[in-house]
Amino acid sequence: MKRNLIDRRELIKGLFSAMAPLGLQAAAQKACILQDKALRFEVLISDGKIVSRKLHNRLADEIIELPKEDFTLEFEKGLTITSSALAAEVRRQTSTQAEFLFSASAGRLAGLEVRVQYEIPSGKAYVRGTRCARIA
Asked: What's the confidence (pLDDT) of residue 10?
């Protein structure tokens, strides 16, 4: 009878090679989480793009998947730009406040910056968002 045995070294090598893609994926993603006792607001960014936005209402025990698009800007002559057309990064974050910077560095959109700020006001059960656009 033939046995398929592996030694300890092969086992460890196999485990590390199976876990490597998972580690790389997790390292490329950045989670921005705002929360208090009533809410949890989560934005997941991967490779400079928002891949997920969720709102967890803890009071109602409800999780809402929000659209990935954070905003849409409409300019003269019909030009429309969504947040997915720009590179996203977290600029500042605390447990109840966050600021994102969406920017373009090339093409027709070069110099466009959109700052998005989110805040969970103290003692309130909602998320406040503000947006500010500028063309440099």
From this structure: 63
